[in-house]
Amino acid sequence: MNLNAPLLDVRDLSIQVAGVRPPLVDRISFSLRAGQTLCIVGESGCGKSLTSLALMGLLQTPPLSIAGGTAQFAGRDLLTMTRRELGQVRGDRMAMIFQEPMSSLNPSLKIGEQIAEAVRRHKGVSREAARARALEMLERVRIPAAAKRLDAYPHELSGGMRQRAMIAMALANDPELLIADEPTTALDVTIQAQILDLMRDLQAETGAAMILITHDLGVVAEMADQVAVMYAGRIVETGPVAQVFDDPQHPYTIGLMSSMPSLGARSDRLVTIPGVVPQAAAMPDGCRFSTRCPFRTPICDNVPPLTSLGNEHEVACFHAPLEQTPKLRVVGA
């Protein structure tokens, strides 16, 4: 076995919706090694959550379907597994944390029962052993009075505690890959910070790889090793987080970063990106950002390939590197 091989290697993944010609997710590729964190960032409607659901085998089919590509997980293609094979992997070797635990947890089952069920499903242990593991996990995610919370229903817990319970359930079988879809969106900022700290600590303990889906660049800066910027179903920029943040090369990435408030004094208004992500049936034929990009030229009517800028930094823009494009230099001056 090649120890340097990626744990997850996604190539040209496309997701289609019935009756719509352009793919919602269009030939995206990325890879992830054990212990690494990849953040996928972008506005709502860019295909981030669809990508995670496709990897977990949770797409609503129909109307959605995999239109092409591969997703090799530990040498096996997730996209061609049978439902039975995927059921053996999902919840055991790979797991997911959803963004709204109140709608993801079963409201009619106690927290301890839900965690224990995941353990029994994959490990074949007794009810007593599964319950003991559930208690261990609730303590591990730092839920106060964990023994009491075992017999609580989801509605009896706060939002932060419910999310901790979701993390406990996801990690109960020590997965090699954890997918977290906006895990702190519904929480206040103090609880957000606690949950992110918890996830980082647990990842360091277990050595799991993690895909973190977010629209918050602050979370990306804090958590990511690698970042993939996604727009309208395509990855437009990717690379090591420090490289992308220090030298963003796609106009969309620059727009996202410029729209973030800073703690220092600010003399100008925050930058906004005009327009919205186009609907699936109205996607431009070429660069999908071209309808919102102030630097659009006729060449943007073609699809820009991801091009290497060195140091694993890739960008899908005909004008990159931007420093060599006079028009962009003048506009940004």
TrEMBL record:
Major subcellular site: membrane
Family annotation (Gene3D superfamilies): P-loop containing nucleotide triphosphate hydrolases
InterPro entries documented for this protein: AAA+_ATPase (IPR003593), ABC_Ni/Peptide_Import (IPR050388), ABC_transporter-like_ATP-bd (IPR003439), ABC_transporter-like_CS (IPR017871), Oligopep_ABC_C (IPR013563), P-loop_NTPase (IPR027417)
GO (cellular component) term, any one: plasma membrane
Compartments reported by the entry: Cell inner membrane
Keyword entries, A-Z: ATP-binding, Cell membrane, Membrane, Nucleotide-binding, Transport
The organism's place on the tree of life at top rank: Bacteria
Gene Ontology BP annotations: peptide transport; transmembrane transport
All copies of domain ABC transporter, residue ranges: 10-257
Short name of any one Pfam family annotated for the protein: ABC_tran
UniProt GO molecular function: ATP binding; ATP hydrolysis activity
Membrane topology: Peripheral membrane protein
Protein family: Belongs to the ABC transporter superfamily.
Entries under PANTHER family matching the protein: DIPEPTIDE TRANSPORT ATP-BINDING PROTEIN DPPD, OLIGOPEPTIDE TRANSPORT ATP-BINDING PROTEIN APPD
Protein name: Peptide/nickel transport system ATP-binding protein
